[in-house]
């Protein structure tokens, strides 16, 4: 008797969520002022710029190239570094911490600028006996970190809504 009730409640919950228009995050939180913007970077084809562009498009942000009366998201500084966290008994590096820091700014058409930044850390176990596999794994981790940094920058753009409307 208990199993059919659970099934009924689960089905009712799924139908209620799908019927009410519930959607996962798809850009609805981004302020209207930032729904159309221009993305600038010193290297527009860098991995970080491409990750940022991809995340903006996933959040339904319209990216333009030539307009001057739209907000500008500028990737000012992108820095990567790795630090040794632990070593093997033989003195070789065992574990590294990968660090990605991104500094950006959102400049509104009225020339008001808002700085935003993010920092992403990951731990990477470095085994020199499997150098080729670890190199490929490290590249995947760096790409994942760039995607995470781009998502965090978008979240900080959402948080700008209060500053934009407060002025």
UniProtKB/TrEMBL annotation:
Keywords carried by this UniProt record: Cell outer membrane, Lipoprotein, Membrane, Palmitate, Signal
InterPro entries listed in its UniProt record: LPS_assembly_LptE
Xref: PROSITE patterns: PROKAR_LIPOPROTEIN (PS51257)
Main location: membrane
Signal peptide start-end: 1-19
Membrane topology (UniProt): Lipid-anchor
Pfam families found in the cross-reference section: LptE
Subcellular localization(s) per the UniProt record: Cell outer membrane
HAMAP family attached to this UniProt entry: LPS_assembly_LptE
General function of this protein: Together with LptD, is involved in the assembly of lipopolysaccharide (LPS) at the surface of the outer membrane. Required for the proper assembly of LptD. Binds LPS and may serve as the LPS recognition site at the outer membrane.
PANTHER family: LPS-ASSEMBLY LIPOPROTEIN LPTE
The family this protein is said to belong to: Belongs to the LptE lipoprotein family.
Quaternary context: Component of the lipopolysaccharide transport and assembly complex. Interacts with LptD.
Protein's name in the database: LPS-assembly lipoprotein LptE
Organism in which the protein naturally occurs: Aggregatibacter aphrophilus
């Amino acid at each position: 008797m208990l199993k059919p009730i659970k099934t009924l409640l689960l089905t009712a919950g799924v139908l209620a969520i799908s019927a009410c228009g519930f959607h996962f995050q798809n850009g609805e939180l981004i302020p209207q002022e930032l729904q159309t913007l221009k993305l600038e970077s010193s290297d527009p084809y860098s991995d970080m710029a491409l990750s940022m562009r991809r995340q903006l498009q996933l959040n339904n942000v319209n990216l333009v190239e030539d307009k001057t009366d739209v907000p500008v998201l500028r990737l000012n500084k992108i820095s990567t570094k790795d630090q040794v966290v632990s070593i093997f008994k033989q003195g070789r590096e065992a574990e590294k911490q990968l660090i990605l820091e991104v500094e950006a700014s959102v400049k509104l058409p009225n020339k008001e600028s808002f700085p935003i930044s993010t920092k992403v850390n990951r731990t990477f176990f470095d085994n020199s006996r499997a150098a080729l596999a670890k190199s490929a794994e490290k590249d995947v981790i760096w790409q994942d970190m760039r995607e995470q940094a781009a998502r965090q920058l978008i979240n900080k753009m959402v948080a700008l809504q209060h500053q934009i409307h407060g002025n």
